[in-house]
């Protein structure tokens, strides 16, 4: 019997727990939102405008390797796209043959074939088709685990910025190093709890609160090394959940439960637990008499904790980290995802 069909879980009020959230569905929906936003934005690009999208090398740990795609609106109003190839990637980060084959299968012409593509893969097409191709390229070939770790900007031929609508949870380049007030100044009255939480998280992520994107469950996602941390606001009772799927596709064992219990007992706040093959870490923050510094502390603790624990527990118990390249669960098969080759 699944968790969602279990009446005892419903009676216990556990259906609202983050453990019952379909993690795969959350990530899939984030990519769908990105693709929809990209499809809507591409037709609005003025002639001569180029939109650049890239996997943030700082967030992804790829260093000097920048996996990116650009789309340009050319003179006749058509759209031409280019995607980085091995010619522009450092040794150790170049695409394997399987990834190159995947690019061609998606519809990209090999480097240099399309006029103007230079050393890049190239293609042309309608906005909807390009948006789908670009999304799959960034996700499946270049290995972007979540659109929140994409950065983008649009500019004209003089490199002047061109405004476009937000692309889902991807971040505009201008917000990456934006200045925001310190956390201590954010305990403003007159705002509801959700707005206060958004301001605090935006400040910590150095982004604009008005541009902060949430998923379909209302959760805000934060990258923490190889882990992902979510922030969820509950209205009744007023509570903020700061939680992380530390490991997925893990085999529950008595040794694992003993380990999680021992680690929980040593945590000053929060808890660790395993359900439905996922190990979760959770820290609650009271929403009544909300203090921004309390939420900031919980997020700081959780991001550090999740990134450390997923590595430690993965080494001992296996499973898959949220952003762990090449991680294999006990139920994994020899068939690998293309992005794992990058």
From TrEMBL:
Signal peptide: none annotated. This is YbjN domain-containing protein. Residues 193-324 form the TY-Chap central domain. It comes from the Bacteria. Gene3D superfamilies: 3.30.1460.10. Residues 29-150 form the TY-Chap N-terminal domain. SUPFAM superfamilies: Type III secretory system chaperone-like (SSF69635). Pfam families: TY-Chap1, TY-Chap3. InterPro entries: TY-Chap_M, TY-Chap_N.
């Amino acid at each position: 019997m699944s968790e969602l069909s279990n009446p005892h879980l419903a009676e216990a009020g556990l259906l609202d727990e983050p453990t019952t959230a379909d993690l795969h569905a959350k990530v899939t929906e984030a990519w769908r939102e990105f693709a929809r936003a990209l499809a809507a934005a591409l037709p609005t690009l003025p002639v001569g405008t180029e939109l650049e999208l890239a996997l943030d090398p700082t967030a992804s740990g790829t260093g000097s390797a920048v996996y990116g795609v650009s789309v340009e609106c050319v003179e006749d109003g058509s759209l031409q796209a280019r995607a980085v190839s091995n010619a522009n990637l450092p040794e150790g980060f170049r695409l394997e043959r399987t990834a190159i084959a995947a690019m061609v299968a998606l519809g990209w012409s090999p480097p240099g074939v399309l006029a103007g593509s230079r050393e890049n893969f190239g293609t042309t097409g309608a906005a909807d088709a390009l948006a789908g191709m670009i999304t799959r390229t960034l996700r499946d070939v270049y290995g972007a685990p979540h659109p929140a770790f994409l950065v983008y900007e649009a500019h004209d031929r003089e490199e002047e910025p061109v405004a476009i609508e937000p692309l889902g949870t991807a971040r505009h380049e201008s917000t990456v190093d934006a200045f925001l007030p310190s956390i201590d100044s954010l305990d403003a009255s007159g705002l509801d709890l959700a707005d206060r939480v958004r301001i605090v998280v935006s400040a910590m992520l150095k982004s604009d609160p008005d541009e902060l994107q949430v998923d379909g469950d209302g959760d805000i996602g934060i990258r923490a090394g190889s882990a992902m941390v979510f922030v969820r606001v509950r209205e009744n009772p007023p509570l903020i959940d700061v939680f992380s799927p530390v490991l997925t596709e893990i085999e529950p064992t008595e040794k694992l439960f003993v380990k999680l219990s021992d680690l929980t007992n040593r945590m000053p706040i929060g808890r660790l637990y395993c359900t439905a093959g996922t190990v979760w870490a959770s820290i609650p923050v009271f929403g009544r008499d909300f203090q921004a510094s309390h939420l900031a502390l919980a997020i700081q603790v959780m991001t550090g904790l999740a990134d450390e624990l997923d590595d430690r527990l993965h080494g001992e118990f296996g499973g898959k980290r949220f952003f762990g390249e090449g991680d294999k669960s006990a139920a994994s098969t020899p068939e690998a995802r293309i992005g794992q080759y990058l």
